[in-house]
Write a structure and sequence with these properties.
The protein has helices at about 5-30, 30-35, 40-50, 55-65, 80-85, 95-110, 115, 130-135, 140-160, 180-190, 200-210, 250-260, 285-295, 305-315; strands at about 70, 75-80, 170-175, 195-200, 220-225, 235-240, 265-275, 320-325, 330-335. It has about 350 residues and is of the alpha/beta class. β4 (about 195-200), α11 and β5 form a beta-alpha-beta unit. Bound molecules: S-adenosylmethionine (SAM).
């Protein structure tokens, strides 16, 4: 990243959160969908959203300044990316992820960053997720799970396409969450069966998604803690997606040891997570996501391919390598338990 030189570069950073907040507010009233469906004047949008025209004009003006919408002759239109990703029926619609996960969970969570950086607990009486998601006035568990699941489905399909599991019969998805990655791998590999291990509350959600996808009979669930609960053995594949960034340093080594023990010789471990390069320079979004993990856990690590591959190799794995998975955001490390 080129070092910044002007005060306007600093302003862009210090005021950037206002633009983010304007986007979240627009999604709360599904503004871009209304535009897409033809309510494209100030009056029509005021009617559709229930926001008075004077206030809506101010919001729309902010949205214009960041290129989300444009205006010509009193008519508003969505930018190409807005239409694709932020409208109902758009081919890449991820409104819920932006609104609930970015706008609710992350935005609210980051209010506590200073405290978390000092190593203090964000909530004295409960965990970070509980405080932000499940507490009264929080984001809301079902809304959060639904948005998180929707956000994971696309990347999960991408990974299932990229990672060939032909011949594998058993997959253990540790910290599998809603099961998006498991479902994608099972869809792609009809012979595969899976086990999802996650905390009890999450496993209940994963069961619903498995049943909904008609995969209930191919997925077993274990409710527990990945660090202390026994993992089933003789697995062909162990997947850990966004789990290493959620646990602390010592637990990373434990997860690597447990993955090794759970795999049959020749078995494959997949570690998918936010990772910055070994020089800690890029990519920006990976670094930003990793900052969020500090809120969750004071021992969270700024993950790099070197850290991930080092932990796997210390546990006895032969490293295949690390590749970019979601461009500019996540990476995937593959390694094998030697035969
Ligand atoms: C960000 S979510 C990712 C979910 C899923 N792997 C995916 O990629 O969509 C991280 C998951 O790890 C789980 N998790 C974190 N620490 C865990 C632990 N010690 N034991 C079991 N699950 C854990 C969380 O409950 C959550 O479901």
């Amino acid at each position: 990243m080129k070092p910044i030189e002007s005060v306007s570069d600093i302003s862009a950073l210090t005021y950037g959160f206002i633009a983010s907040r304007a986007l979240f507010a627009a999604l709360e009233v599904d503004l871009f969908t209304h535009v897409a469906r033809g309510a494209d004047t100030l009056e029509a949008l005021a009617g559709a959203t229930g926001i008075a025209a004077n206030r809506l004009r101010t919001l729309l003006t902010t949205l214009k300044t960041v290129g989300l919408v444009s205006e010509a002759g009193g008519h508003f239109s969505n930018a190409p990316a807005t239409a694709t990703y932020l409208t109902a029926g758009g081919p890449g619609d991820f409104r819920d992820y932006v609104r609930v996960v970015n706008g609710g969970f992350m935005y609210e969570g980051l209010r506590h960053l200073d405290k978390a950086l000092r190593g203090e607990r964000v909530f004295p009486d409960k965990g970070f997720y509980e405080g932000i998601v499940y507490a009264e006035g929080g984001v809301g568990g079902p809304a959060f799970s639904k948005a998180q699941h929707a956000g994971s489905l696309g990347p999960a399909r991408l990974m299932a396409k990229r990672v060939d599991l032909a011949g594998a019969r058993t997959l253990l998805d540790v910290g599998g969450g809603s099961g998006a990655y498991t479902l994608a791998f099972l869809n792609k590999n009809p012979e595969l069966r899976a086990t999802i291990l996650d905390f009890p509350q999450t496993v209940a959600t994963a069961r619903c998604y498995a049943a909904h996808a008609g995969m209930g009979d191919r997925i077993a669930h274990i409710a527990g803690n990945a660090i202390t609960t026994d993992w089933p053995g003789e697995q062909d594949v162990v997947l850990m997606s966004y789990l290493w960034s959620a646990v602390g340093g010592p637990d990373i080594a434990e997860l690597a040891r447990r993955a090794f023990a759970a795999l049959r010789p020749g078995g494959l471990v997949l570690v998918h997570d936010f990772m910055v390069d070994d020089a800690h320079d890029t990519p920006a979004f990976a670094a930003w996501y990793l900052l969020l993990s500090v809120l969750d856990n004071p021992q969270a690590q700024c993950l790099t391919p070197g850290i991930v591959e080092g932990a796997l190799s210390d546990a006895g794995f032969a490293i295949d390598g690390t590749e970019t998975m979601l461009e500019g955001i996540t990476s995937l490390t593959r390694a094998r338990r030697p035969s």
